[in-house]
């Protein structure tokens, strides 16, 4: 029936049926995950907003997400919100089922699938078990994507000696911040932490005199670790930076993006004898292009701070005391972040964090 309705372009009717059918497979998720017909229905729904009529209209207005995709997102949100209706103690089983279904579809419709996965990940982030499961699913997806890339460009790899890396995000997105959070984190773990590439890069930059080239150091470290060369634009410190700039100041994930950025920007250079060698964070923002990126980051921090300052000063709207206190805490947080970004002494070896003024929030460092 679902296939027939898809062929007749009755997409909203298909969504209504899926709303009732999907939870029936909670006890046996493998049945629906292995169904090629159901997967084809999902892919058709993800592409539904690109019918020839809608495509013609998109030449005038390219709105994303489209009507069908929005309705699909609403359906998933209803499932996750009403999990008790299906005798569940948490939305975790439904979230995992939907993530696995969409991970398969992502390989064909990455943009639309990312939008829907963003809805699920916005819930998963706040539950430790769901978060771990979600990271695992995206890890599997990254491995599948990497294998697909290698197979697709195998001849080119042989000719050029290169080995294209897989990625879940070609560029930062303001439409899917939660998906970006999980995707960048997975890529950071797989490409830089498990391989020790990031630590080796910090050590190389620390030992290089003058103003070393990030690209040259990265290429050198990849060669030393016998890894395929990757462009400096894939470095997680730049990925988090770009995502910060793309994310609206009022989005709940943006403080987390800042946290991820500072964890790399202020990270101490690894040392065998545990000697404090300081940080090389500022070296990533030397040169015209990267210095411009730093200027944008400083401006974004100011925008974030001013946004919450305005919220605190708003007397025309009745705001609960608890929420007003939260706005004040956010102002303090962004004030602290600004100090971290501006104060070069934080990168010096042997800096005494406990001697810093209270405004630095040294306990967060």
Automatic annotation (TrEMBL):
InterPro entries: Autophagy-related_EPG5, TPR_Epg5. One of its GO terms (cellular component) is cytoplasm. Residues 194-361 form the Epg5-like TPR domain. Keywords: Autophagy. The keyword Methyltransferase does not apply. GO terms for biological process: autophagosome maturation. It comes from the Eukaryota. Belongs to the EPG5 family. This is Epg5-like TPR domain-containing protein. It comes from Lygus hesperus (Western plant bug). The lineage of its organism: Eukaryota, Metazoa, Ecdysozoa, Arthropoda, Hexapoda.
């Amino acid at each position: 029936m679902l296939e027939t309705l898809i062929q007749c372009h009755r997409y909203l009717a298909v969504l209504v049926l899926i709303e009732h059918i999907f939870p029936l497979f909670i006890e046996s998720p493998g049945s629906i995950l292995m169904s090629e017909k159901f997967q084809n229905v999902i892919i058709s729904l993800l592409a539904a907003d690109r019918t020839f009529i809608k495509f013609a209209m998109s030449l005038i207005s390219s709105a994303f997400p489209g009507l069908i995709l929005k309705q699909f997102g609403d359906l998933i949100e209803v499932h996750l919100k009403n999990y008790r209706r299906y005798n569940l103690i948490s939305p975790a089983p439904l979230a995992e089922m939907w993530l696995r279904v969409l991970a398969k579809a992502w390989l064909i419709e990455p943009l639309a699938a990312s939008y829907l996965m963003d809805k699920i990940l916005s819930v998963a982030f706040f539950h430790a078990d769901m978060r771990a499961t979600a990271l695992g699913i995206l890890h599997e997806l990254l491995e599948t994507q990497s294998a697909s890339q290698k197979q697709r460009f195998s001849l080119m790899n042989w000719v050029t000696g290169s080995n294209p890396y897989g990625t879940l995000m070609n560029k930062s997105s303001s439409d899917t911040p939660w998906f970006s959070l999980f995707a960048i984190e997975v890529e950071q773990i797989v490409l830089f932490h498990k391989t020790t590439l990031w630590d080796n890069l910090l050590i190389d930059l620390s030992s290089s005199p003058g103003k070393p080239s990030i690209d040259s150091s990265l290429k050198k470290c990849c060669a030393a670790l016998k890894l395929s060369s990757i462009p400096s634009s894939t470095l997680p410190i730049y990925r988090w930076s770009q995502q910060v700039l793309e994310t609206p100041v009022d989005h709940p994930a943006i403080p987390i993006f800042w946290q991820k950025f500072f964890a790399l920007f202020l990270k101490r250079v690894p040392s065998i004898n545990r000697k404090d060698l300081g940080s090389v964070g500022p070296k990533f923002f030397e040169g015209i292009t990267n210095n411009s990126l730093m200027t944008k980051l400083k401006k974004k921090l100011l925008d974030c701070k001013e946004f919450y300052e305005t919220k605190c000063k708003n007397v025309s709207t009745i705001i609960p005391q608890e929420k007003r206190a939260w706005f004040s805490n956010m102002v303090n947080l962004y004030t602290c972040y600004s100090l971290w970004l501006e104060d070069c002494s934080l990168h010096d070896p042997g800096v005494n964090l406990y001697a810093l003024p209270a405004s630095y929030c040294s306990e967060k460092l």
